[in-house]
Amino acid sequence: IELINEGGKLFATSNIDGALQEVVVATSQDIFRSGFDGIGEAGVYVVGTGATGVTETLGILGIGYGLSMAAMSFLYKLPPKNYIPPNVSTTEAVGDKVQESSNLTLHNVDTDVATRTPQFWLMYGAFGLSITGAYGFLSCGKLILTETFSSLDVVTPSFTTAFVAGMSAANLSGRIIYTNLSDLMAKKMGGDPFYGRRLSYTLMFGAAAPAYMAVIWSVHQNDGTSVLPLVVFSGSVFTILSSFGGSAATRPAIVGDLFGLKNVAPLSARQLSVVLPGAFAGPKAVTSFRESSVNDAIYRLSENINNDAFESAFGLGKEHLNTLIEQKTVTVPRLMEIAPPGTIDPSPFVYDTSMYLMCGLTGLALLTNQLIKPVSKELYSNTKA
Predict the structure, then answer these.
(1) Confidence band (pLDDT; 50, 70, 90) for 382?
(2) Interatomic CA distance for residues 307 and 323, integer angstroms
(3) What is the pLDDT of residue 38?
(4) Taking 60 as the threshold, does the pLDDT of residue 384 lie above it?
(5) Beta sheet of 20-26, edge-to-edge order
(6) Are 138 and 164 in contact (CB under 8 A)?
(7) Is 281 helix (H, G, I), strand (E, B) or coil?
């Protein structure tokens, strides 16, 4: 098929009416990444034709999610009248004191006072830093898998689908495991439950930070034959996402330990306001660093490709490279098809800068978490929970 390049876009002549139609060239690697491996074939496709099924999939997921949430809402119930927590006798529950072995925080700090304390903002910062890295990984985890490990026979479209499901399972398991672990630590350490809760956050952030570095190691060590780097990569991703889930789910508990049980709901809601900027900044940072690394890789690859081969593949010479990149006509996979034998595919390494950044953010979250101390008794209010 003869391709014509106009303004950085590729066109081909229609076999039906002879009109020029905008097309895209899909390589075998592009087909694999799209999830249609085994269905579609590498070749030239007319822009705007075909369907990905995204609309239908999201519609079904939305309906299913809405029905599930509506059904679960009917299970919410208030505790029975005069309810007494386990391990607390009737005598101890009447009055202002609660048995210390029940591990409940007895003091309260007013909401307005709590939001002016260093502890509130240290928690806010630690939470925001940690989830920024995790949200960044959520946006690219599957893409790194397909770009890096597609040479392994085990990495099929079914495997990548299972991998995404595994990411969700890791998030959920972190919410279950770390919340229960934090309760156990709070009880085992005795005294103020805050210290046990803080230790659980130390484990979360302490496990996630090296996991980002393990991702880089696994990507660099992949040789297309051994599955060990893939195992390390998958384990690292699941570790990061379990820490992400645990950090969010344990947040109300540590808020209650610091400021009392009365104002857990409003204070936790204010803590969660950092989710919006974190969810925006993480993927944005990863996308920006990846785009910059991809462009650098394209420039380096283009330098090693013959001018005639480049113009034959893309319809324009290298002097138009910036335009071709902007129109996404020139990509790393397409350059690898015409690159000299022995050229190393740079795709697996375009996330290194992002991973270093995410590791640094999680390290700062760990440091911030260690700076949190119990609230001064002078700030306690006289109102009981």
Answers:
(1) low
(2) 16
(3) 58
(4) no
(5) 3-6, 9-13, 20-26, 43-46
(6) no
(7) helix
Question: For residue 24, what pLDDT is reported?
Answer: 78
Do 114 and 267 meet the contact criterion of CB atoms below 8 Å apart?
Answer: yes
The per-residue DSSP string of 320-358 comes to GHHHHHHTT-S-HHHHHHHSPTTPPP-GGGTTHHHHHHH
Q: What are phi and psi of 13, to 5 degrees?
A: -80, 130
Q: How far apart are CA 287 and CA 282, in angstroms?
A: 9
Residue 326 tokens read as 């902007």
| Beta carbons within 10 angstroms of residue 44's beta carbon | 12
Q: Packing angle between helix 118-138 and helix 275-303, nearest 10 degrees?
A: 40
**Local confidence band at 249 (pLDDT 50, 70, 90 cut-offs):** very high
Ranges assigned E (strand) in the chain: 3-6, 9-13, 20-26, 43-46
Which amino acid would we find at residue 27? T
Q: What pLDDT is stored for residue 186 in this prediction?
A: 86
- Which range is least confidently modeled, 48-57, 131-140, 226-235, 241-250? 48-57
Say if residue 383's pLDDT is above 60: no
State the average pLDDT for the chain: 85
Residue 117 to residue 374: CA distance in whole angstroms: 11
Q: What angle do CA 76, 80, 81 make, to 5 degrees?
A: 135
